[in-house]
Amino acid sequence: MTMEDHWKSLPQSHTTTSTRMTPTRYETNQDIALLSNLGPGYKRIAKYENMPVSTIQGVVKQYRMQGSIQDVVHSRRTSKQTTKLKQQIKAKIEQNLWASLREITESLRDLNVGQTTVSKVARNLGFKLRVP
């Protein structure tokens, strides 16, 4: 079986049926890791993925050292946008669709969440809040 046949048999994350037009970094790195297991060199993988050879080398090195391509947990500032907070903001908005951003922020004051965070979460959830 030729290398091109191997590439065609890979699960294609770049298909046109997906909702994204371009693959995510995780999907691309997963493809690179699978290709590195099949045996082609860095140059062939780089040509196939249309990426620099140094990027391919970094992904393969990470895959071989860690055994996966998942990002390592970093000790950085935690995000305010937790799943629980997103659910509470969504519930508040659905409870009163005509509520302003300020009203929703005031109702979530006990969670110590700012107006900007509420606005970003609402926008990411697909809501457009009015700001009086």
Automatic annotation (TrEMBL):
Sequence ranges of Low complexity compositional bias: 15-24
Region annotated Disordered, chain positions: 1-24
InterPro entries xrefs: Homeodomain-like_sf
Entry superkingdom: Eukaryota
This protein's name: Transposase Tc1-like domain-containing protein
Species, as recorded: Choiromyces venosus 120613-1
Classification of source organism: Eukaryota, Fungi, Dikarya, Ascomycota, Pezizomycotina
